[in-house]
Write a structure and sequence with these properties.
By secondary structure, the chain is mainly α. It has helices at 13-39, 41-48, 53-87, 95-106, 116-121, 136-184, 193-214, 237-294, 308-322, 326-354, 356-377, 384-397, 404-422, 433-445; strands spanning 110-113, 131-134, 220-222, 232-234, 295-296, 402-403. It is rod-shaped. Residues 246-280 form a coiled coil.
């Protein structure tokens, strides 16, 4: 040192004292930071872990950088000690002392020699060099760079280790409880999709935890535009997906549990619905025989037999319940409930279609008697013409088999005859004979 002369003007005593105070404060701050990094939980975990992938590569570089950091710091400490020793030689430093101090404090007076391993892996050391020359200011800047990159790597790994493994373990515990519950209700791999999902989630979580422990930086997302060490967040995409999948499985198992709780009531209700459908069909078949015997010239639809397929499925559902095969019973009950309601509706529609001719006959009988009562209120019940028309219509309606078309015409003839007698002076209009009788009744009553 001192061969080439001081860099720039020679510092005076006040400038030297101020520089030494500043460098001393920086020395204390750097030492505190290095000791904190040395004691960081993430660094200790990285030292003892079996690392793979990105984390292994970055930790190799960061570990070399930390080793180089201490070498830089030792060189910085030695240079600062030398400067302090020169300054302390005498109260009023000589010009030679000031020249030497200026070169030491401002020139590239610090030589740093790194180990072969450190210099090979540290990204900031020039390739092919085992030592470098620094000024104290440049050395501080280099240490800050190495410290920031090393701390960023350590903090990122520690953040992932602090966030993900514990959450994975909690989810794995919940997964185990869900598997036990699933097994109790018959949800097993190969027998139910939810059982297959549980096996897949188990495999995924096991692999995820192993990779998180060995390569935490593979699950780190740096913050965009952030230069602070540790800026970013753990990537929980895989974990979140499996957590949602497990929640879906839990809902499926809850549905199976619900089936187990109310299966008997639902089976009883199904039996009742199918029994009502069977009775309705039996009534329709009986009514069809009656219609064929009592109504002539009428097309009566054929009535199908009881729903044997549904009865067989109902028996299968009862077997599932007896053997606690809830995962199979659940979808079968849902299908049966829908089809049973449809079957009951079909049976009722069949009964309505079969008994339609009887309903028409009953309506004609009621209309005939209603007109007879109206005629009687006007004192024409014994009119021979009306009696003849009434008897003819009545014989057709109360005879078997009854021809509804002919009987309907007979009832209409009786209505017209009654209308002619009740309102002989009212001309024929578009209202029809029924309306004329009703009008005559209203006039008579008023």
């Amino acid at each position: 040192m001192g061969v080439t002369g001081p860099p720039g003007p020679v510092m005076d005593r006040d400038e030297v004292d101020r520089a030494l105070a500043r460098l001393g404060a920086e020395h204390e701050a750097i030492e505190t930071s290095l000791l904190a990094l040395q004691d960081h939980a993430g660094r200790r975990l990285l030292e003892g872990a079996e690392l793979t992938g990105t984390t292994k590569e970055r930790w190799t570089a960061a570990d070399a950088s930390i080793t180089l950091l201490w070498a830089y710091f030792d060189a910085y400490t030695d240079a600062l000690r030398s400067a302090r020793d020169i300054r302390s030689r005498r109260r009023w430093s000589s010009r030679d002392d000031l020249v030497e101090l200026t070169e030491l404090l401002r020139g590239e007076s610090v030589t740093v020699a790194g180990s072969a391993t450190a210099t090979a892996n540290a990204p900031t050391l020039s390739a092919g060099k085992l030592s470098e020359q620094f000024s104290l200011a440049a050395l501080v800047e280099r240490m800050n760079e190495l410290y920031a990159s090393s701390l960023d790597m350590v903090v990122a790994a520690d953040a992932v280790w602090s966030a993900l493994p514990a959450r994975i373990d909690l989810l794995a515990a919940e997964l185990q409880r869900t598997r036990q519950l699933a097994h109790s209700v018959g949800v097993r791999p190969g027998e139910h999709p939810a059982g297959d999902d549980l096996e897949r989630i188990t495999r995924t979580l096991t692999a995820l935890r192993e990779r998180v422990v060995s390569d935490p930086l593979a699950f780190w997302t740096p913050a965009q535009g952030s230069s602070a060490p540790g800026g970013g967040r753990p990537d929980t995409t895989t974990y979140d997906r499996e957590a949602r999948a497990l929640e879906d499985v839990r809902r499926e198992i809850d549905a199976v549990l619900t089936v187990r709780q109310d299966a008997e009531a639902r089976l009883v209700k199904l039996r009742d619905i199918l029994s009502r459908a069977d009775r309705t069909l039996a009534e329709a078949r009986s009514a069809r025989g009656e219609v064929l015997a009592k109504i002539a010239a009428s097309e009566v639809p054929v009535v199908s037999g009881p729903p044997t397929a549904l009865q067989e499925q109902l028996a299968t559902a009862a077997e599932y319940r007896r053997h606690a095969q809830w995962h199979r019973l659940s979808p079968l009950l849902e299908s049966l409930e829908e089809r049973a309601e449809d079957e009951l509706l079909r049976a009722r529609e069949s009964l309505t279609a079969v008994t339609a001719p009887l309903a028409v006959r009953a309506e004609l009988r009621g209309r005939l008697d209603a007109y007879k009562a109206k005629v009687a209120r006007h004192g024409l019940a014994e009119d021979p013409f009306l009696v003849e028309r009434y008897d003819a219509a009545r014989r057709m309606l109360w005879s078997a088999p009854c021809d509804l078309r002919v009987a309907g015409e007979a009832v209409l003839r009786y209505q017209r005859a009654a209308a002619d007698l009740l309102s002989p002076r009212v001309p024929e209009q578009g209202g029809g004979p029924v309306d004329r009788i009703d009008g005559a009744d209203r006039r008579g009553e008023s």
